Amino acid sequence: MIDRSFLTVDGQYIGRFAPSPTGSLHFGSLVAAVASFLQARSHGGSWIIRIDDIDPPREVAGSAASIVRDLAVLGLVADAPVFFQSTRKGDYWLACKKLLESDNAYWCGCSRAEVPAGPYPGTCSEGLPPGKARRSIRLRAPSDNISFHDGVQGAVSVSIKDTCGDFVIWRADELPAYQLAAGMDDAFQKITEVVRGADLLDSTPRQIAVQQALEMQSPAYAHVPVATLNGRKLSKRLNDVAFSEIDPVFLMRAVLEFLGHTPPARLALDQLWRWAITHWKLSGIPAARMREIAEISGPDPLNGIL
Questions:
Q1: Domains and CATH numbers, the chain
Q2: What is the pLDDT of residue 38?
């Protein structure tokens, strides 16, 4: 049993971990979970889990419960009931209607196959061309750059117009797009700071654009390196080894070392958490978008479980 008495919550800082239920927890997503948890705790704040279950065709039955259970094995327990995005579909649609009425968004009749590579050319931005029917809804890209300071990656400034153009916020299969749901829910849940993998850094300007169009407050952001093995992003479970079968201390040490924090030897799990919260600094995390597991100190750091 982990002693959780040191995890005080004052409600001033709210962090979150928001996995998609498309499979089991893996090392790469665990890195993001631990980083977001430690950033919240080091600020004396609370930490929540949000399941981004807005893409039913990609979901794996039972994976949401499995993710929550595997996190709990390591002591990563949310301070509020797990939140499911699927409960908010009506709110996403109402937001789309509001954006359509304000002309910040428009109906698009283009299929993916019809859209050329590069920024969306605005085919439907002034109305549906003859022969096209409503398929999706696109948010008009802001004319100004979206700029923010990332807590790990530094200054970021992106022209959405030049990178992707007007982007989909409501899909042709009548589901909310990720950028809409994530941007809305970070504001709705009053998230103070989003700490997640750098593979989502390119999504951040679009989520900020959603928040701006809906006159919502944007959180701060910090994007930690994505774990790679031989140059490939880790996106599968640890060799199908159940988290319950891996020594939690061993796994936590590997995550902390990956994040640039090397704890003393021979600490029990509760001592490891105490050390990590006390010594946690975003400035200690390598400012890279990707980082090889092999860069963790020590021989064969994950002992062949990857």
A1: 14-86+227-295 (3.40.50.620), 87-224 (3.40.50.620)
A2: 98
